[in-house]
Design a protein that fits this description.
single chain, alpha/beta
Length: 270
């Protein structure tokens, strides 16, 4: 894996006009942010050695290097999911490459189903912690000390100072945000009512099919992480309704401007 990471990082470094310190995984809800990146250089995943190819509708599949305001950023437009058939090493490979390129802070977004009774469809949830229910941990296997410690501490995976900054930005703009625990699941099925109930009982506020693997690897690599979910549907007792991928995308698109504003101003403060 080290050889692959180095090969990919070297390939990208030769094409990058500068070395950003901020990385962004433009998941659901952050597509609009990509349009605001200036002085951009785009590299399709198909041209990057060792990169998987995104197969999900709504995920473009390209790396963007450019300026977001006055900040240099490296953004993934399109992420990889365990449910697509990739193993965890493949899902998180781009995060390893980001670290090799000098990324110190990683920002991540996703769509999630809300289980907290106080949540509303369209809410933005700042992730304060997570519960990992994936059947495979991305750090499983022999540990490479140069990539991180064997047993990384996850007690501060989502640093409070970044969450506090995001909440202050939201308050200044009159944007409603909530905060909670994200449950990461393998997917690709949406949850049954019983599963929603179970995830709520074990401490979850929202549930989705991404983010946790990338965050684990980012923490292992020594990065700071900020993550946010758009609550696109509800799995609250008595309020569970049928949901489709198209409906999730529609709700996410409506919430995009608010998430984009918060993320952009947070990045400016890093």
């Amino acid at each position: 894996m080290l050889a692959k990471i180095n090969e990919t990082a070297t390939f990208l470094a030769d094409k990058m006009p500068f070395r950003p310190k901020v990385g962004i995984i433009l998941g659901t809800g952050l597509g609009e942010l990509a349009t605001q990146i200036t002085n951009r250089h785009e590299i399709p995943y198909t041209q990057i050695p060792n990169f998987p190819i995104s197969t999900v509708e709504g995920h473009s599949g390209k790396l963007i290097i450019g300026m977001l305001g006055q900040t240099q950023v490296l953004a993934m437009q399109g992420r990889f999911h365990y449910y697509e058939g990739y193993n965890m090493k493949e899902v998180t490979f781009p995060v390893r490459v980001m670290k090799a390129l000098g990324i110190e802070t990683l920002l991540v977004s996703n769509a999630a189903g809300g289980m907290n009774p106080s949540f509303q469809i369209g809410d933005l949830m700042i992730i304060s912690d997570h519960i990992n229910t994936f059947p495979e941990n991305p750090l499983r296997g022999k540990n490479e000390p140069s990539l991180g410690t064997r047993f990384p501490d996850m007690s501060k995976a989502y640093p409070k100072h970044l969450r506090d900054k995001a909440k202050a930005i939201a308050q200044a703009h009159g944007i409603r945000v909530v905060e909670g625990v994200y449950v990461g699941t393998a997917g690709p099925t949406f949850e049954t009512p019983a599963e929603y109930g179970y995830f709520r009982v074990i401490g979850g506020d929202a549930v989705g099919m991404s983010t946790v693997p990338e965050v684990i690897v980012a923490v292992h690599a020594g990065m700071q992480v900020f993550a946010m979910s758009i609550i696109t549907d509800l799995g609250i007792a008595g309020q569970v309704v049928e949901v489709s991928h198209q409906e999730v995308q529609e709700i996410a698109n409506q919430a995009q401007p608010k998430m984009t504003l918060i993320m952009k101003e947070l990045i400016a403060q890093l």
